[in-house]
Amino acid sequence: MTPALLPDPDERDVARAAQGDTDAFQRLYLAHAGRVYTLARRIVGRDLADDAAQDVFVHAWEHLAQFRGDARFSTWLHRIAVNVLLRHAEVARRITARIAPVLLDELHAPAKSEDTRMDVDSALARLAAGLREVVVLHDLEGYAHEEIADLLAISISASKMRLHRGRMLMREWLLQ
Amino acid sequence: MTTSREDDHSWQDRLSEYLDGTLTSAEVPALEEHLNICEYCRGALADLRTVVDRIQRDPADPAPPGAWPRIARRLAPQSLASTVPDYRARGRFAYAFESRTLRRIATAASFTLTFVSGVWLGAAICASGLVGSLPVWLHFGLPGFTPPVVRIPSSMARGPLAADSTDDGPLARLVAQGVEQALADAERAFRAQPATPELQQVLRQLAVKRKRAHARVDSLSAKLKP
Q1: pLDDT digits (tens, 9 = 90+) for B13-65
Q2: What residues in B contact A59, CB-CB < 8 Å?
Q3: DSSP symbol at B133
Q4: Rounded to an integer, what distance in angstroms lies between the CA atom of residue A94 and that of residue B179?
């Protein structure tokens, strides 16, 4: 039996939550919160991750009626999470660009310190949002460039270029 | 791209694609030929493998403690939930309008501005001499709203709202209070939910309307002076 044919472990709770059972939805939350919060931290950054992850679950709750069971709940939730988090990231980017473009430039400026070694978390956070989103979606979430291009409304070649640029920057920060 | 010179690192931009197996079958042997003679690109490729490996081993976070109660408070009954989640079809920002908080604030702001506009219109009518007093419903415009004392020149005043003509800026204060209240409501909502471009738009529109309202009231106050 392939994994795709295994019963969805969330099936019962999804059905109950769709009827308005918040206890069932809390169980779904507990089962998937770690992955959603991790994805939120990687896409929108640690400062915004909590609020963004909360929005993911609220939107999932509001749209549970649309879940048809064609895919696993975890897959469906993940797709919602990516959409909501990318929107958060873009809004945050626009607000920052509008309010403090100088600050934004400073944030994305190359480090002047000699000691630029850092961990993966910090390096991801340091990437410009456009690069970080592609690196996270491709290398951590397993999305193909075609899917990333569709999600971010960019070309496939731009997605490939951003991935390579992001990796090269992380190489510089992590290894050199 | 056919070069394989040792000092030509133009292949370096394609190393990620090579690593991911997305180069064409014609490109792979050309890049491998270059790798055979270019230590720099071999090193970059090895580094990229390490980076990707480290990224993929980045540990997941546990959910923050105490997050569930905050989410639970935001869960509406399913019967009230929206059923249109296709963000891509509707635009990436469309779902912000599904926010109940935003809708409430936008409605409140619009209502307040409409109310304020009514105040100004009523005052303008009074000032024009067509009607001698402001309408009574002004006092009951908003829940919990305590109407300020409206003073208009005694020469124009008729009815229960009539007052003296000593204060030349009461209408300005009335209009300003309404607009300022709408702004305060919107700003509170903005602080609670900052990542909402539509709310920013509401704030900008309110700011513009405030400016216009003050300009109109200044003009009206000048007319009301005896």
Answers
A1: 999 999 999 999 989 999 999 999 999 899 999 999 999 999 988 888 888 88
A2: 85, 95
A3: S
A4: 27
Helix axes A73-99, A22-44, angle to 10 degrees: 50
The answer to whether the Cβ–Cβ distance between B16 and A87 falls below 8 Å is no
Q: Is the pTM of this model over 0.95?
A: no
Contact list, A175 vs chain B (CB under 8 Å): 47, 50-51
Neighbours of B183 (CB within 10 A): 20
Radius of gyration of chain B (CA): 32
Question: Which of B18, B54, B61, B203 is the mutation pick for testing A, counting most A CBs within 10 A?
Answer: B61
Are the beta carbons of A107 and B210 closer than 8 angstroms? no
H or E element, residue A93: helix A73-99
Write B152-158 long-range contacts (CB < 8 A, 24+): B152/B123, B152/B126, B152/B127, B152/B224, B153/B224, B153/B226, B155/B226, B156/B126, B156/B127, B156/B129, B156/B132, B156/B224, B157/B132, B157/B133, B158/B132, B158/B133
Give the DSSP H or E segment for B211. Answer: helix B197-224
Closest Cβ opposite residue A120 in set B54, B68, B70: B54
* Alpha carbon distance A156, A148 (integer Å): 8
| Cβ contacts of B117 within 8 Å, gap of 6 or more | none
In terms of C-beta density within 10 A (0-12 exposed, 13-18 middle, 19 or more buried), how is residue B204 classed?
A: exposed
- pLDDT tens sequence across B117-126: 555 555 544 4
Put simply, the answer to whether B82 touches A63 (Cβ < 8 Å) is yes
Contact call for B92 and A139, based on CB within 8 A: no
Q: Do B75 and A30 touch (CB under 8 A)?
A: no
Helix ranges (DSSP H) in A45-72: 46-62
More confident residue, B160 or A101: A101
Confidence band, pLDDT 50/70/90 cuts, at residue B152:
very low
Mutate to test the interface with A, among B12, B24, B48, B58 (most CBs of A within 10 A): B58
Q: Is A100 left (phi over 0), alpha (psi -120 to 50) or beta?
A: beta
Residue of chain A minimizing CA distance to B82? A62
List C-alpha distances in Å: B72 to A25, A29, A58, B75, B103. Answer: 9, 10, 8, 5, 20
